[in-house]
Every structure is written in structure tokens, then in C-alpha cells.
Predict the 3D structure of the following.
Amino acid sequence: MGAVSVKGDLSAWVEQTLEAYWRLLGREDMLPAEELPLGEGFEAARRVLAGLRAIPSPGAIELPECRLEWAGLRVEGRVTARLHVCDFKPDDASDELPPPGSEARLRHEAGSIRVLVLQALGGCDTPVALLIARAPNRKDRRMFTRAPASGVALVRLGGRDANMDLFDLSEGGVGLTAPVAVEVGENIGMLLRLEGKESLPIECDGVVTSCRKMTTDAQGRCRLGIRFTTLPEPIREEIRRMVSNPAKREP
């Protein structure tokens, strides 16, 4: 029996659902259905729609009054939403702001929100605002089982190479100790060598998903969370076996 295509049914359902979503937004113009990838599902089509019509993501934040807190410091300001990210602008332009790659908390009258600082706006030396986004929840960060690991990584970053230490590993990504902070969202290339595994080093690409300064480290090093964007399937399978069988991680 041949494969049964449901693309037509999926497209029709996605279009109907987007029409309902469109009306909930209070839009009176026509849904631009012909410009949307309806066959790829609701979320993919909604993201394209957001880009076409500048609709803020449901995860975006809009706060006229709030306080950004990090590392014992705080600054008053306001947040305005873009599509999938937000701008934080301090009330006082002279206030110190957290560096890119750090995690902070937005306090407001209804509670608080964990956010990641993605980029300094207006210059890294004297930023006047920040580009921020909601931090992923703990469940999202643990899609794959992680295991402690020892090894080294040669990371290609901004046209230069940096040596980093490897401290944990999963089939979805790797944890590295970096000599400097790296901006969240940065795409990097890596050459990894895990202690006791002859099949490594492996060459792969990834994206920085978290960057935290090690408060107990006098050298100011940071811990990076990297999600693999390219990884050979045989290597992924080997990492999966290593994580599920701790004995295989020993040299």
C-alpha cells in the first residue's frame, strides 16, 4: 500500500485555525493564506504570519514599568515587544546594564519573568538598551539526558579559535567552560575531544543557548550551554549509548 498524503487536510485545518487566531487578534483585513506555509503546520505558519504582519509573539513581553535584576544589581526601565524578542530601555541612561549572555529577572507588579540578555543596543561599551527574550524553562533545557564528561573543545568564534573545557554532554548538546562570555544565539563551530574516546574528536556546529559567569572563578570564566545544529548520526548514537550506560564513559 502506498503512502497516504494528508497535506491537503492539514493545510485546510491550519488555515481555519489561523483564521480564528486572526479574528482573536482583532484583525479586520484578510488573512494572507497564500503567503503562508500551511502544509508545515500551525506554528510554522503563525511564525511566518507574524513576520509578514509584525505581530508580536505570544512569548513577547510588554511592560511600561519594570525592574531588571541580575547578580545583585537592579535597574528600573520599560520593555517593548518586537516580534519574538523585546527591548529593555533603562529610565536612566547612565545605569549599568547586564552583559550579553547573562540571565536576569524582570520584576513587575504582577510577578517576575526570567529573561536572557541577547544583545547590547547602542554599543557594547555604552549600551543604551538591551535586546532580551524569555528564558526557556527548565524542562525545555533538558530535552536530552545529560551526563558529566571530561574533555576539551576547540571553538571557532568570530574568526578566531578558543580553547575550552568540556564538562557535560548529551545527544542534543554540550556544556563548555569558556574564558570569556559569549553572546546567546551565537553560531559556533567546534572540534570536540572526549577523554577516553578514540572516535572523538568530532567536528560539529552549534548555537549558544546559555552563558553564565562562574561566580566562584577568579578568572571570570563562563559556563556555556551549546545546542548541536549539526552532528553526524553515528556520533549522536554513540553519545546516546554513553549517556545511558555510565560504565562506557570511563576511559
In short: Residues 140-249 form a domain with the Thrombin, subunit H fold (CATH 2.40.10.220). The mean pLDDT is 80.
